[in-house]
Amino acid sequence: MSNGDLFQRDREWHPKAYAHDYKSSVTRSPKNALLSLDNTASELTGPTFGHGDIDPLDNDLLQNYAKTGDPIGERIILHGRVLDERGRPVPNMLVEIWQANAGGRYRHKNDTYLAPIDPNFGGCGRTLTDDQGRYVFRTVKPGAYPWRNWVNSWRPAHVHFSVFGTAFAQRLITQMYFEGDPLIAKCPIINTIPDPRAIDQLIAAIDMNETVPLDSIAYKFDIVLRGHRSTFFENRPEGN
Predict the structure, then answer these.
(1) Taking CA atoms, which of 13, 137, 183, 207 is between 20 and 30 Å from 223?
(2) Cα(94)–Cα(188) distance, integer angstroms
(3) Average pLDDT over the chain, rounded to whole?
(4) Is residue 119 a contact partner of residue 102, using CB atoms and an 8 Å limit?
(5) Which residues pair with 94 in a beta bridge?
(6) Nearest residue to 96 (alpha-carbon basis) of 143, 48, 144, 44
(7) Residue 4: which residues within 8 A CB-CB, separation 6 or more?
(8) For 208-222, how does the pLDDT look when each residue is reduced to its tens digit (9 = 90+)?
(9) Which run of H or E residues covers position 223?
(10) Stretch 171-185: mean pLDDT
């Protein structure tokens, strides 16, 4: 891929490196001018996942870690499409998610929030997009949780998404939120994004057409990789 194939980064679309209300940005803000590094040939053509690497239960977080029963919480379906800037489907993309459980706690040794660990919920899954760029996950709706930003800061319910391209070095990461969550407008991290349109593209809409009656509510979250309508990503050289 040449530089001419990449879309110029829109600096007005992305947050500034330092945001007063997001305390962690103090240590994450670069002190020197940014450098743009091109991918090497090995990074662009390196190994990637194939269909044989995906287990049938990898995208079912209700079952892929369960030992003694179903996970606790509101059962949901997350689905959508991975698209390019012209609305064309992107097939065979590895999509990964990870999230807190219904109480707002991650299965990680560094998470010390007082909400209990769910013994039947691992909190992560993966799948490959089909020929129409579609993906789907079954899971539980994650809970909000407090974090040490200010005295009373809470993260809205969210799911982390990772999308791999044709090599491991081509990885984009973002967070998806849920329609109607009042904590979205109060989140210091989300409020670093200067354009409300970019925030709207991170919010999954309730999809009653895909909801399973008496079972699971569905949410639709499309991921656009490039162009003026692209999804906001936490790490992105435009064009990947």
Answers:
(1) 183
(2) 30
(3) 88
(4) no
(5) 128, 164
(6) 48
(7) none
(8) 999 999 999 999 999
(9) strand 223-224
(10) 95
